[in-house]
Amino acid sequence: MSDINIGQKLLEYRKAKNLTIRELAELAQVTPSLLSQIERGIANPSINTLKIISKALQVPLFHFFMDSINTDELVVRADERKRLIFPQSKDLSYELLCPDLSGKLEALLMKLTPGSCSSEDAMGHEGEEIAFVLSGKTNIYIDGNLIILDTGDSIKIPPNVKHKWENSYDKDAHVIFAITPPYF
């Protein structure tokens, strides 16, 4: 485990909020000299002091103890996406747009070829879903009601509402989904 520089993190969060040391000191009700010493690594704050500072910065306390983010792990290259293909339907595929399913949000790209559908029957799942038609035209059946969506249209699907996608048109349809919690 690498050493975590709380002072450096404090400096970064303070600057991100466009606060001077004096402004943050006033918000946190600590002295500017204490903040300066913490930022320079001369003083170590108590957990209580760090709680007060984190509240003033509106940053969760645990963020001060997190290692820096490895941005390489956040990027999903177009040619490296995880694909979900269903054997019963070669005309339907999903690509995972997020690196994995470890978070609270899932993003997918669905491709529906002409004449294909997402499932035989309408299905519901826990959680909310937002869908955006990136290209093409598609039908969605929500609780038996047909809604036609064109390129650029979006729709919110509430939790547990049964729905089914269908492409009855002559061009591929590409739909981006954001789902929480992850479903696939």
From TrEMBL:
Pfam families: Cupin_2 (PF07883), HTH_3 (PF01381). Residues 10-64 form the HTH cro/C1-type domain. Keywords: DNA-binding. Coiled coil: none annotated. The keyword Protease does not apply. InterPro entries: Cro/C1-type_HTH (IPR001387), Cupin_2 (IPR013096), Lambda_DNA-bd_dom_sf (IPR010982), RmlC-like_jellyroll (IPR014710), RmlC_Cupin_sf (IPR011051), TransReg_Diox_bact_type (IPR050807). SUPFAM superfamilies: lambda repressor-like DNA-binding domains, RmlC-like cupins. PANTHER family: BLL2473 PROTEIN, HTH-TYPE TRANSCRIPTIONAL REGULATOR. This is Helix-turn-helix domain-containing protein. It comes from Clostridium brassicae.
